[in-house]
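Hallway conversation turned thread

IA: we were arguing at lunch whether anyone had actually written out Cytochrome P450 end to end. Turns out nobody had. So, for the record, here is the sequence (417 residues) and right after it the structure tokens. Reply here if something looks off.
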Amino acid sequence: MTHGTYMRKIIDYANRADPYPLYSELRKTPVLRDEDGPYLVSTYWEIHGLLHDPRISSDRRNLNPDAARLVALEDEEDDPMLTPNFIRLDPPDHDRLRRIAMYPFGPPHTPRRIHDMRGELARIVSGLIDDFQGRDGADLVDDFAYPFPVTVICRLLGVPRNDEPLFHDWADTIVAGADPDPDADATERRATVRRARTELSMYLSELIEDRRRTPSEDMLSALVHGDGPDGRMTHAELVSTASLLLIAGHETTVNLITNGMLTLLRHPDVLKRLHDDPHLAASLVEEVLRYEPPVQLLPQRTPLTDVDIAGVTIPKGESIWLILASGNRDPRRFPDPDRFDPDRKDNQHLGFGSGIHICYGAPLARLEAQLALTELARRLENPRLLEDPPPYRRNAVLRGPRHLPVGFDGVHAAREP
């Protein structure tokens, strides 16, 4: 395999079901300049170092023109309604917006919000599994892993659940736009993504104005009316933040739950352990995040100055791809990395990233996955894969099955609350 094929191999759908042999080959050259443009970083310590390096920017406006072509996203800054969200910004703008967004979401200002959702999350999970009664199989994506986090994020933000079909299509288009594809028609792709972002932004803008007039107990109202030491977000910042939370609040969790259940069904001994001991869930979810992370790579990073790493100089403005899933299988960091081991010690994986951009919703995603996998393991009688590998989503960045057909012999009763 020549160096010039790596980027295209990563995004090639033929490798979606099992990209890990490719990553193993790639790690032989920890920092590699691909002939198609980006610098590919594939080893744990190099990725971890760059995620914590203040010289590395997440703002695509710092890419040189040739590198920006690879990102293939519309120029959000050209439209005040489409201002970049905080994961695409650098300090100090990133820090201010993230702090404001954290006020109504978690510690230290709202320390019990996620903890206090546990009962409601458990009821949603139980209700979805109850719907499997009388059936001998289900698609765990369409019937469970998608509706669960979507219901949660709608309730958390205050988005009417009946509007889900609207933002489902918008979210799919926007997320697909984040998937690098040098062969796509850039103009058509940009127009399609921009249209979806504009329609979602108009929807959220109306919802924000409604909360401005009539606040409720939801997180969107708290963002609209919050007035902490960092001040309030502008209307455009509110729209971009709400859009980020709505999309990221379910997209990655769908893949985390689905990848987790697929892994358990491939490891029936671990599935039985979880069935017998729900306390295994916390460490098991951490190992899923290492072994089959929902976010495989971060394709939008660039140096603000020339950076030397692993004997390679990456020039200012060049595109850097951080291959998180490869770093998670780096044998220099994780012994026997291709083995799924829920008892793994010192499991400081890159499944949620690291540094200032570490996943904002990680506490909620962890809790959702723990509850979901525990109840599926406990309540499904003799669950089994009906298709392996299952059909995967096209996206190389957010990797997970598009469908997960599972058969079972019955559904055990839910626990008493």
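OS: looked through it. The longest helix spans residues 235-266.
IA: good, adding that to the notes. Residues 73-78 have pLDDT under 50 and may be disordered.
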